[in-house]
Amino acid sequence: ERPHRCGECGKSFRHRSTLRDHGRIHSGERRHKCPKCHKSFAESSELLQHRLIHTDERPHKCPECPKSFRTSSELAEHRRAHTDERPYECGECGKSFKKSSGLVQH
Predict the structure, then answer these.
(1) Quick one: pLDDT band at residue 24, thresholds 50, 70, 90?
(2) Distance in angstroms between the alpha carbons of the first and the last residue of the chain
(3) Residue 79 is part of which domain span?
(4) What totals of helices (H) and strands (E) does the chain contain, helices first?
(5) pLDDT at 53 exceeding the cut of 90
(6) Does 80 map to a domain?
(7) Which helix (H) or strand (E) holds 14?
(8) What pTM does this model have?
(9) Which of 17, 22, 51, 74 is 20 to 30 A (C-alpha) from 82?
(10) Average pLDDT in the 17-44 region?
(11) Which helix (H) or strand (E) holds 2?
(12) 8-state DSSP, 30
């Protein structure tokens, strides 16, 4: 059950504190600052993800090859190199692409 609903976008949360943190996205408040470059973020999870750029840490490993990635989304995009999955389809001609940038360029 997610009883705490954002009045701005309608997204719901289990905890009031999570809704409060989420609200900072809409207000522009960015309380979480990177100690290395001082870039700031609305949510602590964004800062945790950002901090990986200051290290060589790449915790998301490809099971098919030796490559590893900083984010799960980078790994998901890379894994398409090992398959023929083409999830980005042109609505006009039906041609599909492995990356969203391929569709945009098309």
Answers:
(1) confident
(2) 42
(3) 60-105
(4) 4, 8
(5) no
(6) yes
(7) none
(8) 0.49
(9) 51
(10) 88
(11) none
(12) -
